[in-house]
């Protein structure tokens, strides 16, 4: 098979990591394949020529798109020009739906086949986008078990490849022994952390009055400045003794009795680890109002969506207060049987996510598409 070239677009930190896994799998099959596009340090480390840094595209909340409108438009122009000039054999898109579907339209006009890995959340909101996907995408590689049937209903070629987090899934174990430990996972972006960590610390301070034995750990996500976390702890921690751990959350999840986590991929990591979780999420008031009007699913937590039931509690916007989070924490800390039932339910969610090897399966699809040549859909 001729190696050729691939453009890949990953606009967020997790997509960057998942994309790097696909690129490495592709290079095992096609060592001379040239890869270029949009990404961050993980894709760069996998050998991808970065035309636009993923940090230029990252936004949180609907209203924050306007603040980056110019940089988004500039990035879109650069990507479209690169597509037209370099004519890759395949375009691989990862999440980032608004940007990526515009790029897909350009690829369609150029006859470049499009593989979309990690579906837009069309099942949650703006379901009309599935028609754009049907017109512009040649194959969907989805990571959630319920997504495949949705695309099939619209005639979109689709493969459930399993969830990439399963590649690093720890073995399930019993609840850790010793003093109760609670992990606080406030998010990976500055604005998320500013909104979530103070209320998490407020909840912790309330719980500490009843349960002074509980030990508290705050996660410092990769790319987050530790001093910003320490500043918030100093300002909002109310004298609470708090440990901080930088890097990934795997250690925190393994050692915690339960965690309080900002809605996002980390809540699925907690589900895979079997760690009881309270999900919280706060955005700007306008983003919340717009999202509330558009969202069409009963839950925001992926574990709950996969289980199709409220396996873990969700405290969103006005419910995400120190008082309410603290109340849920006490209820779980004081009820080992409830935690056991939650761990069992999370184990069932984990089983639905498929076996390891998502990146390998995506690479296999990509190779077949490269071999098939230009898109004719």
Structure description:
This protein has 377 residues and is an alpha/beta fold. It has helices at residues 13-29, 41-45, 69-86, 97-110, 129-136, 147-153, 190-210, 226-236, 250-255, 265-273, 285-294, 302-307, 322-333, 336-352, 358-372; strands at residues 5-10, 34-39, 49-53, 90-94, 114-117, 139-142, 158-160, 181-185, 215-220, 242-246, 258-262, 277-281, 314-316. The strands form 2 sheets. A 7-stranded parallel β-sheet has the order 3-2-1-4-5-6-7, with helices on both faces. Helix 1 packs across helix 15, helix 3 (69-86) runs parallel beside helix 4 (97-110) and helix 7 crosses helix 13 (322-333). The radius of gyration is 21 Å and the shape is elongated. The two termini are 22 Å apart.
List keywords for this structure.
six-stranded parallel sheet, 377 residues, Rossmann fold, 13 strands, seven-stranded parallel sheet, 15 helices, 2 domains, alpha/beta
Write the layout of secondary structure elements.
Blueprint (H helix, E strand, L loop, with lengths): L4 E6 L2 H17 L4 E6 L1 H5 L3 E5 L15 H18 L3 E5 L2 H14 L3 E4 L11 H8 L2 E4 L4 H7 L4 E3 L20 E5 L4 H21 L4 E6 L5 H11 L5 E5 L3 H6 L2 E5 L2 H9 L3 E5 L3 H10 L7 H6 L6 E3 L5 H12 L2 H17 L5 H15 L5
Parallel strand pairs: 1-2, 1-4, 2-3, 4-5, 5-6, 6-7, 8-9, 8-11, 9-10, 11-12, 12-13
